[in-house]
Amino acid sequence: MSTSFSNMNVLAVGASRNIGYLTSIRLLEKGATVTFLLRSPSAFDKDETIQRHVRSGKARLVKGDALKEEDARRAWESAGTVDTLLFTVGGIPGFNITKGFIQDPPNLVTACLLNVLCTMPAYSSQPKIIILSSIGLSPVAHKALPLPMRMLYSTIVQPHKDKLAMERVLAHGAGWTWGLDGATEPEALFIGENWRERPGVPAAGSYTNVLVVRAALLTDGKSLADEQEPKGKSAYRYSEEELKFYTISRADVAHFIVKSLERWDEVKGKRINVGY
């Protein structure tokens, strides 16, 4: 059964740039409607691609910050009946000589996700939830990385702890067993105290329509998949299993996400690693 992108209504959080932006553009070009939650909508003022879709009514720009619960709630209200949540929040970490890469706030991704999930309306049909994460977060996943990647990822401790806390929230909502890969409960700094008791946090096992995309080390550049797909070739690999991935372009992660929507029944309820 083919996917009707023209009827798809997407709420994109963290899509002002990079993977969220590239995925949203692909969806808009296929006819989807995308509502962007943006701290600075003016960032798109000179973006003719976005402005073309704004003029057509397919791209909607909502000013707000997902770190604020009221802004997340307003984004849902502005978007209408959402059938797909695209969550690709990520910061630009700074480097500290003793602490490695750090971000401000340290719980940026987890805090934003909790705000978005806790304000999601009670739709009659659960939206597809697509969350961007990273490979190598748990002890087992870290061990599976190639040695150069293990050394690099050992310096990205704080941002990875944040993403792991984000995945803890999703594991709770999706009913996935936690800790089989050696992951421990996240520190309160990243997930908060008594987070399960927060109003709006999904009941355990209530999310049946979620996909976590764990990307390899991200690079800029074109989509190799756009070149290889017409030739019947695969540009990247993806698997629920831990593979020795190195890198992947942001454009190819966007390609993977859109393709995942076309084969949703195959990928929903999974955490999939993707890379070259």
Order of helices and strands: EHEHEHEEEHEHHHHEEHEEHHE
The biggest beta sheet is recorded as:
8 strands, mixed
Tally of helical segments: 11
User: Fraction of residues in helices?
Assistant: 25-40%
CATH domain fold name:
Rossmann fold
Low-confidence stretches: none
Whole-angstrom Rg: 18 Å
Number of strands: 12
Mean pLDDT: 95
Q: Estimate the global geometry from the Cα principal axes.
A: globular
**Subunit organisation of the chains:** single chain
CATH architecture: 3-Layer(aba) Sandwich
CATH class bucket: Alpha Beta
- Number of spatially distinct domains: 1
What is the terminal-to-terminal distance?
29 Å
Word description of this protein:
With 276 residues, the protein is of the alpha/beta class. It has a single domain (5-275), classed as NAD(P)-binding Rossmann-like Domain (Rossmann fold, 3-Layer(aba) Sandwich). 36% of the residues lie in helices and 20% in strands. The protein contains eleven helices and twelve strands. The protein has helices at 18-29, 48-56, 69-79, 108-118, 139-144, 147-153, 157-174, 188-191, 224-228, 250-262, 264-267; strands at residues 9-13, 33-38, 59-63, 84-87, 94-96, 100-102, 128-134, 210-215, 217-219, 237-239, 247-249, 270-275. The strands form three sheets. An eight-stranded mixed sheet has the order 3-2-1-4-7-8-12-10, sandwiched between helices. It is globular. The two termini are 29 Å apart.
